[in-house]
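>> Question from a student workshop board

For tomorrow's exercise we were told to take the sequence and the ligand below, predict the bound structure, and bring the output to class. My setup keeps failing. Could a helper post the expected result so I can at least see what it should look like? The ligand is 5,6-dihydroxy-NADP.
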Amino acid sequence: MLNYIHDIPTRIFFGEGQIEQLAAILQPLGKKVLLCYGGGSIKENGLYDTVMNILNKGGFEVSELSGIEPNPRIGSVERGVKICHEKDIDVLLAVGGGSTIDCAKAVAAGVYYENDLWDMVTSEHDLLKALPLVDILTLSATGSEFDPAAVISNPETKEKLGNVYTYPTASICDPTYTFSVSAYQTAAGSADIMSHVCEEYFSRTMDSDLSEGMAETVLRSVMKNCPLAIQEPENYNARANLMACASIACSGVLSYGKESSGWPCHAMEHELSAYYDITHGVGLAILTPRWMRLILKKDPTTTPRFAKFARNVMGLTGDDESKLAFAGIDALEKYFISTGIPMNLQDLNIGTEHFEEMAVHANRGGRLDASYVPLSQEDVVAIYNDCL
Ligand code: NZQ
Ligand code: ZN
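>> Workshop helper replied:
Here is what the output should look like for this input. Compare the format with yours to find the bug.
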């Protein structure tokens, strides 16, 4: 088991009704609020009105950054920074899914960034000086509510890049706000949660019992609760378990004591959504079983890890470790299919035309060379081809 530091400053307010705390959370952070949201789901489900009532009653001055895209774009970040300067904003309030929260993080940091904002996205840096950010989560998926990362896209250069900016000061995680999430986004978000766990579970370190056990629990919980939430969108416990799992899955906690795995599926997926603007979790569900099969064949020393996954996560049994390892992957793929996720790139109108350049980009900074099982450019192209 390796050394680790636990340092997550975000306060999570979890559960139904926690929005009652909103005014008190914002009060010490300032009066001038930039309310950030996406394409209108919060207006349809009534959350916008609830939030505005609280802000108006509390005497906050509200400006708005609306229309933040899924796979948020640098243009939205630029718009947000401009409003912050013009209105002398004190605090950002992001209400939405990962895209809205990510965009708000980049805006919060962009306010103090002196160079071009795309340079902020592309350059290597640690946490940045930023305005305080509070969020109200409406989709269980990315874990952006409990981590410092944001992923910003530039459609002109076909780049989608993750970087760290700032932690939310507080996140209000009320599962009832996810009742209106569609079956498709519920399945995609759940696949994203599972991918965050897998990216850390599939590591060379096998003896960090706490993070290993938590990872397996999160995976089992998502596979139990995602189908329930799809069947019964207002099943509070199913939505609540997905939300709790989402926050922990991407927080880094599940990698404590373990060697880094390089997050190869995310590196490959960000290329898919950079080129084709697809839903992140769908791309991950398509890639993950294909990636698993390739690395298990390429490096059979991973067999014990895959067999452990098959036993402890997929609930399979058997004495033949190799068979079990492959059966676990098949079971995972079947599970994704059962949630209604399209499992082939062709279903998303994606062909082979950009695979070579996407494979080069995915290895930015030598990330895939250093992943759990190092991936060559040919490996990545083979994985994309297998996903067709
Ligand atoms: O834009 P609105 O109208 O709000 O609609 C959204 C959007 O169309 C809708 N939605 C959200 N909450 C809803 C709802 N619809 C009905 N009821 C609700 N309660 O769902 C659609 C997708 O929303 P989005 O925010 O894009 O989804 P998600 O939370 O999956 O975020 C995806 C983005 O996060 C990045 C992804 O790459 C992608 O850009 N990621 C961020 C990470 C991080 N910050 O740590 C890590 C992840 O691995 C990921 O890369
Ligand atoms: Zn993800």
